[in-house]
Structure formats: C-alpha cells, structure tokens
Amino acid sequence: MSKKVKVFTLILAFMMIFTACSSSGGSTDGETPPGEPGGSKDKVTLKIGLPGSYEVTSKEIIDGFIASHPHINVEIQEAPWGDFTSKIATQIAGNTMPDVWFQENATILSYGQRGVAEDLSSYIEADLKADEYIDGLFSAKTPEGKIWGVPHGINPIALAYNQDVFEKAGVPVPTDDWTYDDLIEASKKLTIKEGDKTSQFGFIGSFSITNGWFPWIKQAGGSALDDTLTKSRFDDPKTAVGLQQLYDGLDQGYFADIDFLKANGGELEVFASGKAAMYFLQYSLQVNMNESFADTNWDVVKIPKGVDGKRYVPMVANTWLVSSRAKQESKDAAWEFLKYYLGDEVQDMIVKTGSTLPVKKSALDQLKDSTTKPLNKEAFTDGINEGGVTLDENATWSEWRILVQQVVNEIMVGNVSVEDGVKDIHTKVQDVLDSSK
Amino acid sequence: MQKQGYWGYIFTLPFVINVVVFLLFPIVFSTYISFTEWDLFNAPRWIGLDNWVRVLNKHEFWVSIRNVFMFALIFVPIQTIMAFVIAFMLNQAIRAKGLFRLFYFLPVVTPWIAGGVVWVWMFNYQYGVINWVLESIGLDPVKWIDSSNWLMVVSSIAIVQVWKGVGQSMIMILAGMQNVPKEVLEASQIDGANGWKQLTKVVFPMVTPMVYLVMILSTISAFQAFDVFLGLFGSITTGIPERNMVPNLLVYRDAFLLFKMGPASATAWLLFVIILGFTLFQKYFEKKWVHYD
C-alpha cells in the first residue's frame, strides 16, 4: 500500500467512527436485539414514545400491554414533557421517530396535515364501537373526516369553589344553573378590600386560553373560529363582549389578576388558600389539589351557562398518533396498543390515576363512586356530555393561538382596548388561516 | 518532511470535521433553506426569494429590528462605560479587591433561568422591590417590562443585560489595565497628573484595544439577545407582545415552534447582515481612537 492509500484509509476510518457516533440507529426492522431471551425473527418491534414518561402514562399500562402481547417487542423512548416536542421534531426530520406517541391534540392535527400521522378512521371503524365512547374520542377528527389520533385522555374544566369562603361570606355556593352573570355578581360580593389592597377575590381571572379567554368568549356567543375552522370570528361583537367581561373583572378588581397570582404562589395556591373563592379548574389539577392542599374544603359545579342557555366546556386532549411512515406491521402493532389503551382494563386504570378523564363511557361511570375531592366529578363528565368543545383546534392552531395570546395579554393588562385588540387579532388570525390553504 | 505533513493533516482532521459539520454545513444549508419551504418533516421545496420578501414585508420583523437596535444603543455604551469604571476602581489599591471582582463577576455565571426569575420579581408593578423603593421615597410606581411603551421595556431589559454582562467586560478591561506599566503611571504622577488626568490621558489610551473589543463583543451579543428576553418574558407560547419582539425570538418561534424553517433562516441571515454592517461601521472608526502601540 502506498502512503497515500494508507492516509486515505485512515481518514475513511475516522469518518466511519464519526458517522457511527452520529447515527441513532434503530428502526422498525422487526428484529429483536441479538442475545435477548425469547427473541425470534417473527416478533414485531413497537417503539412507543412517552412524553413525561410514566408520570403521565402509568407504567402499569405499558407493563400490562407487554405481558398481554408477547408477540410484540416493545421499546420505550422517554423524554421530559417540555423537551418532547423538539425531540420528536428532530426525530421526524431524521425519520427515526417512534411508531406511536402522544402530544397535544392541536400538534397532532398539524402533524396530520404534514403527512406524519396515520389516518385512523378505518381502524376505528373496524375495531371500535363509537357509541361506547364519548365524543372526545374524535378530538383529532378533521372536517374532512380524517382522524389523526385517539385521545390519551380528556381534560375538561369545571367551576371550582372554596366552600369555606362562601360560608364565611354568607353567599350561596354556585350551582349548575349559574350563568356568567351570576358568577360576576357573586365575585363582587366575595371580594374583600382592605384600603387599596384586596385580600380576597371572587374569581381567578386567568387569561390563558383553556380556563381564561376561550370560555369567556364562548359563553358570550362568540368564538375563535367558525365551524369550518377556516374563518376568524374575532370580528364578531359577541367575542368582544366576552373579552370585555373578563377585562372588567380584572380592571374593577373582583377577579384576581396576574400580579396577585404571581405574588401569592400561583392560581392553585390562591384558590386553595381562599384568597380567591372560585376558579375554572382543569380536571388534571385535582391531583395537585389533593396532594398539596388536602385540607381545603372545595368542590366543583359545571361551568356556568352561556347567554344562549347552552353550556360550553372547553376540553384539552392529549392524543396518541401512529406514525404514517412506520412499516405496516408496526402500524398494526401500534393499533393493537391503542386498542388495548381504549379497552376496559386500561380505561379503568386511567380513572384511578385521576390525571385525566378516560374516553370510555363505562369507565367514566365509575367516577360516580369516587370518594376523593372534588366529590361532584359529574360536573366534569356531565359537562363534557352537555357541551364539551375543543379549543377550535386545527392544523394552524399553534400559530394563531400564539398571536391571539399576545394581544389578549395586552388587553387584559390594559395596554390595548378590547375594541382595538379584537380588530388586530382578527386580521392576524385570518392571515394565518388564509396562508395555510 | 512529507510524512510529518500527513500526520499534521490527520491530527487536525477531527477539528476540520467539527468545523465542516457544525459550522460550514449549517451555514451553507441555512442559506439553501432560506430559499425553500421546509417544515422539517417533508423535503424542502424551492420557492426562490419568497421567504425573504415575506420577512421583509412583515411588520413584526421591522419592529424586532427597531427593538434590537435600540437595545444595542442603550446597552453597549452603558456596559462599556460601567465595565471601564468598575475595572479602574478594582485596579486601585483597595481592600477586599478579590471579593469585589467576584461580586461583579457573579451574574456572568448565574444561569438566565434564575436571573430572569429574580429580575421579573424586581420589576413587578405591584409587588416588585424597585417600585417599592420608588414608592417609599414618594415617587409613582413604574411599569417596567409590562409597559405599553416599547422603549421602556427595551431599556429595562438592557439594564438587566448590563447586570449580566458587565462582569465579563470588566475582567477584559481589567486585564488590559493591569498591563499598564507602573512606571508610566508614576512618571505621569511626577509630571503632575491627578487621578482624572491619569485615567483619561494615560490609562484609557493604553486600554483602548480592550475597550474596542468589549464594544464589538457587546454589540454582537446585543443583536443576538435571546435568553434575556425569554428569561424576562417567560415563554413565547404565553404571548410576548409584538412590540417587544427581537429577531432571535422570531427565529426561535418560526423554527422550533411553528416548524417554518425557511422564514426562520431568512430572518437569521438578515440579522447576520445587520450585525456585519454594524461591526464594519465600528471597524471604520477604529483607527480614530484605538491605539495599539
């Protein structure tokens, strides 16, 4: 070998080392790693992506699936909830993503539009009885009828109230018949001012989407988008009315504002300690309430009715999707997993964790016998049945939601008037919707 | 001789690969994707100058440029002057010199996540310590980072950036000052120069290369400001108002939250052009005041 060839070989060896280091390996090749006991070439490998790891998806469920499906070789890929989005985006770009994983429903919708998610409508039609499930099963359905995933669970809101605060003030506790006007009136009565400072508020005036501006605009008869999810409805005067009511509460001081919440440990702490009498609480937060504030005397009712007498219960779903780029055998294994997930055994387990509501009706029925706070869990379950709505989620949700939030924040701290704010939002949101066509 | 030459190439190979993979390739690739529509998930589609035109036509891009320009204009002079003054003080024969140097350098090693939380609290309109001090001396509270006036917000954040960066700049200038020969200072003293004259006529001219370096680095870091804005505003998803945006926040949002790699790359390149322009501008005036002898 000449010297040149030697050097070339050496360079090649270096490059191979580097390439080997950068390759993440692993694919849906259906092979079991060598040396693994019981491995056979027929075994299908299923890669499951778990954001938030077993804190979000209980380990019991995964272990149960592994035990009951010996022909499927399960590989778990975990990442903290906050890092999962960037990890999965990189994996998708490099074509090394898991076969099945879950993320926020709105994100799933955009993955579907980009051709990453498998349309599950035919699988659902073949294997599930839709009437055994609540409508939330179809959170990831597009107006065109494609279903980009099935829910990991549903997380609706209800009106939580601090019983002791109501009793002390001699104000009757909320009921399912309340309207938003009742909520506002009660908030005024429950607010205690000491000089310039307010020591107790009636309600927590959150201005995030799920328990803030979205329910307020829905109850006033407005909406973010129209039914086809292609037109902005921020130009609807009713939408502005809802935002105005929320702003008035904050401005006139009977809703707790963001500074007060920050200074007093956050929404949950303010509600639990009785510094605010009412709160639009998401179902999953009951776990934190029971862990951190076991002594608080609280319960929930359905969120108040809107001006048209109807109820709108915003609900957030995290959704499992199957990668459209997986091999067919892995897709089938992924659907096996999702079927197992939507089956009685797992749905009952989900009820017990309390971190999310299951989508199967039979499992939901069990909540009636629950003895943990809040006792009136039907406020959540019946609420969904009566008026469960998603947050007008579509494929561009992440984009227009950020734009709306930017302006809503400005409105709520008084930097922009509601009138000017909604005009600005309407133009921006419609721009995003139009550019995605 | 020739054999030694080969080994040289081989030993530098890992670094060459590093530069090619992590610097040259991203530079070339980002130029390419700035001319494409790419969502990370599907193959890039060539769309010519569309991204560039779209970014240049966007109001928020110009708002972000205005903000970062003002941010640099406020931050760079304050940081440079403060770093110089502090370095001069710490170069004197004072007690507990080490302690003071540590004190000024501490923010440099404080992570933004912690520093940001503390500053957000200090700036809080109702409960912040800064407004508490103002109120206790009979002044009205000020909306710092919640203000509807973008200049107020940008100025407040520039102050935080000074807090974070002054330590590093101070160390650089201090290093320059310590190289000023004692004999020169003594000679100037014999000639009757007082403290101020010594500072302006002797010390400053001799450390101008360091001051210049600090200015260039501060300008670049100002235009690249990202952590300070994110640290103080929390997160993009919670809604940073458009009037408070800076280019790097737009790049981050477009690339990693919205998967619009094309516009993100075009914005990043435009930012590069602006930083280059400013650096060349500073370089042009270098000869007029920087002494290298």
From TrEMBL, chain B:
UniProt keyword Coiled coil, yes or no: no
PROSITE patterns: ABC_TM1
Membrane topology recorded in Swiss-Prot or TrEMBL: Multi-pass membrane protein
Record InterPro entries: ABC_transporter_permease, MetI-like, MetI-like_sf
Annotated ranges, domain ABC transmembrane type-1: 65-282
Keyword annotations of the record: Cell membrane, Membrane, Transmembrane, Transmembrane helix, Transport
Entry's Gene Ontology cellular component terms: plasma membrane
Biological process, per Gene Ontology: transmembrane transport
Membrane-spanning segments: 7-35, 68-90, 102-124, 211-236, 256-281
Keyword Transcription regulation: no
Subcellular location: Cell membrane
Xref: Gene3D superfamilies: MetI-like (1.10.3720.10)
CDD domains: TM_PBP2
Pfam family, one: BPD_transp_1
Family of this protein: Belongs to the binding-protein-dependent transport system permease family.
Protein name: ABC transporter permease
Organism: Paenibacillus lautus (Bacillus lautus)
Organismal lineage: Bacteria, Bacillati, Bacillota, Bacilli, Bacillales
